[in-house]
């Protein structure tokens, strides 16, 4: 069975290019802006002018006791996003894997940018890697809301004084007119993202601007509400389907906000699914501590170790891939039509299947939901490494005797 919204899929480049059959069924179109989601099921969401609108927010009943509940949100994504079965090879006996296309960064930005506008900001600041999906999504969303966007991007010491180019997320950000400041990884590690953002904020304040700082990945307690709301969405999709219940939720972890919202929501709601996070940077204990800080900010009274299982999947390091990982991304695309990004979901899915192979009894007979967090533009940064894996091409062999038919082959 296919869990899907009542209306056709709308625009998103953070969604995977899933199989052509699924694409036909949901009439999916892919845009280049990085805003994510599908047409919302409610009639109001389909009305002209509802996109980008400010609307009051009421938490799910099971989250009404949490602190920092937002009063308003901006409609930046089109939800709910679809869920469909993912026919992965070599699964443990009786195991099913389903996939949800998440609109990851936009969910957090709906709440964070509503807060920025409420505080009278005229620009936003955020920080990330040179191919940060979050930074690209922030630049798009800020432009939609008529806010200037300032990005502090981390790159190598060798490249920090050079033009960063127009590859992947950078192309979108620079087309949008985002202000980009480059820092080396060494400078980033020494100073830290918070101090870097505060330094730029101070300079903008001195210029008479009104900046609003969004943390790395949009991952603070307010941003966590984006995935609390995503759990409500998932809960409603399951209720509408009537015959699908998930035992486990799996997601890649890069900044902590997504897993905090998913884990907290799953624990408090009717889902009660076990949340597994595969960290693509830093170590599990770092993320347990970081998630604890986020859920403490919401006064949840819960322990992060009790609501999420975090395993290391960073491999060579953040945004660095082995040849085997990149071949996995290619093989999964060829086998299933799902394109994974190499930085987040690619490593998450790779680690999930490895864990299933190593510990089949842990996963046997379970229904698993994998949350694809987008980021396909990051593939463009891996072109050189993946060129040998890409499909072949050839010039079409034309017979000279083939007659030309009127109305075809004309040049305009």
From TrEMBL:
NCBIfam families: ACC_deam_rel (TIGR01275). It comes from the Eukaryota. It catalyses: D-cysteine + H2O = hydrogen sulfide + pyruvate + NH4(+) + H(+). Residues 75-374 form the Tryptophan synthase beta chain-like PALP domain. InterPro entries: ACCD_DCysDesulf, D-Cys_desShydrase, TrpB-like_PALP, TrpB-like_PALP_sf. Its EC number is 4.4.1.15. It comes from Triticum turgidum subsp. durum. One of its GO terms (cellular component) is mitochondrion. Its cofactor is pyridoxal 5'-phosphate. It is found in: Mitochondrion. GO terms for molecular function: D-cysteine desulfhydrase activity. This is D-cysteine desulfhydrase. The modification N6-(pyridoxal phosphate)lysine is found at residue 105.
